[in-house]
Design a protein that fits this description.
- By secondary structure, the protein is of the alpha+beta class.
- 46% of the residues lie in helices and 17% in strands.
- The chain contains seven helices and seven strands.
- It is globular, with a radius of gyration of 14 Å.
């Protein structure tokens, strides 16, 4: 269970929130790296992934062209430091927040990551 915008939510399916998922191979292609490198990025907390249908997958929204979304690794570290599990962090990143507006991951993709990181940092204390 997590809280955002004063409303506690744990009832929304993570697949519904995230939308498009990529296998490690699919995520590796635009970044020009191997699937093993994607595993390393997940292990280093620079990306997050979950097992879906027997395969480790990552949200497609984490990739912007041929790189990770600007500020994603630092934001993931902040969320982890705040005690968020992988599922809680993904829920937070992909849940609409009227005060942003949009979702935190949308804000990061639109180069509005400073406010997202400020919020993530605030949750760590």
């Amino acid at each position: 269970m997590w809280q955002i915008g004063g409303v506690t939510r744990s009832d929304i399916d993570i697949d519904t929130l995230v939308g498009e998922w990529l296998t490690l191979k699919e995520a590796a292609a635009p970044l020009g790296v191997s699937p093993n490198r994607i595993k390393t990025l997940i292990r280093e907390n620079r990306m997050m992934g979950v097992v879906r249908g027997g395969q480790l997958s990552v949200p497609a929204a984490f990739i912007d062209g041929d790189d990770l979304v600007k500020g994603l690794p630092g934001t993931l570290v902040l969320l982890t430091d705040a005690g968020f599990s992988t599922e809680e962090a993904l829920r937070w990143l992909f849940t609409p927040d009227d005060t942003l507006p949009g979702t935190p991951i949308q804000a990061m993709r639109e180069n509005r990551g400073t406010e997202v990181r400020r919020r993530a940092q605030g949750m760590a204390f």
